[in-house]
Amino acid sequence: MAQKEDVFKKIVSHAKEYGFVFPSSEIYDGLGAVYDYGQNGVELKNNIKRYWWESMTLLHENIVGIDSAIFMHPTIWKASGHVDAFNDPLIDNKDSKKRYRADVLIEDEIAKIEEKIDKEVAKAAKRFGDSFDEAMFRQTNGRVLEHQQKRDVLHSRYEKAMNDNDLKELRQIIEDYAIVDPISGTRNWTDVRQFNLMFKTQMGSSADATMDVYLRPETAQGIFVNFLNVQKTGRMRLPFGIAQIGKAFRNEIVARQFIFRMREFEQMEMQFFVRPGEELNYFEMWKETRMKWHKALGMGDEKYRYHDHEKLAHYANAATDIEFQMPFGFKEVEGIHSRTNFDLSQHEKFSGKKIQYFDPELNESYTPYVIETSIGVDRMFLSVLCSSYEEQQLEGGDTRVVLHLPKALAPVKCAILPLVKKDGMPEKAREIMDMLKFDFACQYEEKDSVGKRYRRQDAIGTPFCITIDGQTVEDNTVTLRDRDTMQQERVAISELPRIIGEACSLNNLLKKLV
Question: Which has fewest Cβ within 10 Å: 6, 56, 239, 295?
Answer without folding.
Answer: 6
